[in-house]
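agent> fetching stored inputs for the flavin mononucleotide docking request
agent> found them:
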Amino acid sequence: MSVLFTPYDIGNVRVQNRFVCSACEDGAATDDGLITDPILKRMRLVAEGETGLIISTHMSVHPEGRTRRKQLGIYGDGMIPGLRRLSETVHEHGAKMVFQLGHAGAQGPAGVGASGPNEMSEDAIADVIKAFAASAVRAAEARADGVQVHAAHGYLVSEFLSPFFNKRTDAWGGSEENCFRLLKEIIAEIKGVLPRQMALMAKLNGCDFTPVEGITPPLAGKYASRLAALGVDAVEVSCGTSSASPFNMLRGEVPVKELLPLFPEEKRSAAEKSLLSMADKFKLSEGYNFEASKLIRSVSGGMTVFPVGGWRNFRTMEHAVENGDTEFISICRPLIREPFLVKNFREKKAHAASCTSCNRCIAALGNGMPVKCYASGF
Ligand SMILES: Cc1cc2nc3c(=O)[nH]c(=O)nc-3n(C[C@H](O)[C@H](O)[C@H](O)COP(=O)(O)O)c2cc1C
Ligand code: SF4
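agent> prediction call returned; pasting tokens
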């Protein structure tokens, strides 16, 4: 049997195989951030398709930290019953459920961030730390198997971590230690309330790809080794920032036609030129965060570190785990298109994902449409 179908533990959570469904915001919650049947349906299919560990869509821990109207939230106790249905749906099929907790920071409509015009006050920072811990308590009440702090993609926590975004001169910026402080305090608060049987994870950028250097693999390694010392069970390695380099984060095609409606009418022609000039620059390579993940793993003292991004071929995934370079393979878009991909791999009905990385699913999210595979157009 392939090593990819053997179990592995993240902290006290036993995962039935080495496949992780990476977080995928689906734009399908109610306007108030509550769960809906389409979200449950997609998650049920991914679980039924034998994915071992499912990381939920990015859930906002604070009303000011929402990415968009239809983002799932975990900032109120009234949200718990719906989120419990999510865990139960996934558990019915033997998969484990981790809730991704995040705050959109300057990238959200509220626009509050580490630095810039709406720089967060110390009181606001304290409020956010409490909101992460309260959300972890709600995740436990909703029977999740773990939580993942979203510290990647230029959202609030990664703004603080990144020397490009974080221009603060107080205790929350400047040195490596100060830039790490927000994540450190969030982890410490969550650890204080999280039941021992639940896993504590983080998603980090191995590289920000900002116009001026932000997080790079060596800095991410330093952050990951600090996370290991704080008792974090696993780190998922991604890259890019949603605002400055979304196509470094995702790679693949730039869906020009589908992105144009996001620009005001008068800016569309300039936007089209600029998007067309990027069209061939982000070719997807297999496991494109793997090298960063290996480097980060090498300085993380045995903590589980695994890469997401561009895994498409079964044999390459198997090779990565067989070689001992990662315990898990995390995938996102291929499971949007084929929720049964893992089962199909196990039954040898597929040896590669059929996702073409056309990125129309992410363009749909930007256009306020629910996430599904739009490979043949909107
Ligand atoms: C539609 C869509 C929504 C996403 N939402 C999230 C999210 O909520 N949180 C997150 O950390 N990453 C999110 N991502 C990024 C993925 O988790 C993953 O890092 C990226 O798609 C690369 O992996 P892949 O090549 O397997 O798709 C999203 C990606 C897509 C395509
Ligand atoms: S729209 Fe479909 S084929 Fe295109 S990237 Fe998304 S999941 Fe893959």
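agent> quick read of the result: The mean pLDDT is 96.
agent> awaiting further instructions
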